[in-house]
Design goal:
Strand order of the largest sheet: 2-1-3-4
Low-confidence stretches: none
Number of helices: 8
Helix content: 40-55%
Radius of gyration: 17 Å
Shape: globular
CATH superfamily: 5'-nuclease
Number of domains: 1
Number of strands: 4
CATH class: Alpha Beta
Distance between the termini: 40 Å
Strand content: 5-15%
Structural class: alpha/beta
Mean pLDDT: 93
Length: 188
């Protein structure tokens, strides 16, 4: 498959994004509570979900919703988790439990449920991250985080699956540029 920067630039029109984007009101976004009792539900999990789930910080009803959903996984989110595990201090007493938890989680993820990221998706995500980086005045580390979020969002959008995330504002900004995807937010 060929990567087409010109097509991405035409599609997302970064030259028209000169003003800083504002977060939309929460009531205008899809909140997970509107999904309770709906099944079956397919979701792609953002990195925040894995972290909050491991920490036991998800609301019980949201945990139940996730447990009943058909879950998909992003290699980008899995890489972010792997980075976090490897970056954690192995001298801390909780490191072994952290390592073992995520190692078991990765083992339990079916290969058929990991969504691949195509070359054009990388290009599209780069255009979105660059546009937001400039318009929002992001620092270099924020642009990299935005690139990861855009990769997750666009991969899910291409598959027609919503992203579940606690990262409402960042996914809102991405969706304001790439409206084809859906994300569902939650707060803890």
């Amino acid at each position: 498959m060929r990567s087409d920067l010109a097509a991405a630039l035409r599609r997302f029109k970064p030259e028209k994004r000169t003003a800083q984007l504002k977060p939309r009101p929460a009531e205008n976004l899809l909140d997970w509570t509107g999904l309770e009792g709906r099944a079956p539900l397919a979701l792609l999990l953002d990195t925040t979900v894995y972290i909050h789930r491991a920490a036991g910080r998800l609301p019980a009803a949201l945990q139940t919703l996730i447990d009943g959903a058909l879950l998909f996984h992003s290699p980008v989110a899995l890489a972010e988790l792997a980075t976090g595990v490897a970056n954690a201090d192995p001298a801390r007493p909780e490191w072994t439990a952290l390592r073992d938890h995520y190692a078991a989680l990765f083992t339990a993820v079916p290969v058929s449920r990991v969504m691949s990221v195509e070359a054009q998706t990388w290009i599209d995500a780069g255009v979105i991250a660059g546009t937001l980086g400039r318009a929002q005045g992001y620092q270099p580390h924020q642009r990299k985080e935005c690139l990861n979020d855009a990769l997750i969002y666009l991969t899910a959008a291409k598959a027609g699956v919503p992203v579940l995330t606690a990262n409402r504002d960042d996914f809102d900004f991405i969706q304001q540029i790439a409206s084809a995807g859906v994300f569902i937010h939650y707060t803890i």
